[in-house]
Structures are given as structure tokens and as C-alpha cells.
């Protein structure tokens, strides 16, 4: 029996992890969410799968994470095999701003500064808080793996190649996350813990009115770099690829920042 805990599990990639892992009745799957009543699909899945447990945990609140880890420990007997850190602050008010948009514009600068602070809390500190809360359980697990979701937008060379100019708080904070992952790996290698950062690829997770135009725009940008790029992955396909990659990685791969395919091809 393998135990998994996934943060940000109410929708998108996080929910896709829960659905995929719940299919194997021998798995024990913990869905960590800010609001346990916010996702009817998750509630329905847990009702039909006895191996799925929904736990409240805002990843910016260490106390809630500690409580969730304690709840996991009670069910598993003090262990956890795999931790997937998916929760993130993705799109704020400043997502469409370029850095030069801030020049001479105090209001945009204020909005950008706020988004950057939220990104630090939701993307960087959250990884530290989540990892530290569950680390004692991971160390006692059989598999001892931690997957932190990153993004190709955290790769400076790729950003230059794509001529990407906006969503700076997200990309910059995820670049910092990659460094946090590398530092954790250095500290945990002797414990046999494998921690890696994986980009899920471009995934069709947004369903708002603006989403179709957004995905078309981004697909066109990426096709300039890679003409064969077919467009966004479904959350289910992205999760399948990431789990396949994670399964192949060992402690020797700890600290790496890779794509869903286990390489540096972000598309």
C-alpha cells in the first residue's frame, strides 16, 4: 500500500492527481484543500472511493499543515510515501503586466508588489511550510519522494527563447522554488529522500471566459519555438507523465528541475 498527499487538490492538476491515484484501491490518497467543501467533484470522488481522505490545509498556514500531517499520521501509522506540492498562487491582478509597464505608474507598481508578495507566500514559503510539516512522515515512508510542481517559465533560457514578458511574479517565484528544492535535496540526500521540481507542461486547467483566447495565444508563442507543439495537455495526461517520470527518478536525481517528460523540453 502506497500513501500519497497532494496539496491544491480541489481542481485542475491537483484533482487530476487524486482521480488517477484513487483508481488503485491499494493506494491511500490524501487530498489537501483550503476549504473541504469547495469542490463537489472531489467530495463525490471521496464518497465513492474509501481510499481518498479530504483534509483542510492552507499551505500558507503552518499550523493547518501540521494538523493535516498529524491526521495523515494517524491513518498511516506515522508514515507518508509521496508528497505532491501542487498548491500555488498562479494568476494575480498583475499577471498581464510587463516590468516596463510599471515605469511611471504607481498604481500598477503597487498591484505588482502585492502580487509578488502573494507569490512569495503562496509559492515559496508554502513549499517550505509543507515540506517541513510532512518531512518526518516522508522520512519514515518506503518510497520517500517529494514532487514540487514548477513551471517552464522558471527557466530563464526558455523565457528568453519564447520572448515571454508577463506573469513575472509567478515565474520568478517558481524560479526561487527550484532553488529551494535543490537546497532541500542537499540536506536530505543522506536520509534517502528524493525531492524534485517538475514542470507539468502547458495544461488546460483554466475554464474562465478568457481561457480559450489565452491558450491560443500561448500555443502560438510556443509554436514559434517548436512548430510541432500540439497545444495544451489535459490535466490527466500531464499527471500521468509526471508520475511516470517521478517513478523513474532516484535520490541521485534529487534537486533537479525537469519537465513532465523528465528532461528540459518544457513543451
UniProtKB/TrEMBL annotation:
MF-aspect GO terms: oxidoreductase activity, acting on the CH-OH group of donors, NAD or NADP as acceptor
Classification via Pfam families: adh_short
Keywords: NADP
TM region positions: none
PROSITE patterns the UniProt entry points to: ADH_SHORT
Matches recorded under InterPro entries: NAD(P)-bd_dom_sf, Sc_DH/Rdtase_CS, SDR_enzymes, SDR_fam
Name recorded for this polypeptide: NAD(P)-binding protein
Taxonomic lineage: Eukaryota, Fungi, Dikarya, Ascomycota, Pezizomycotina
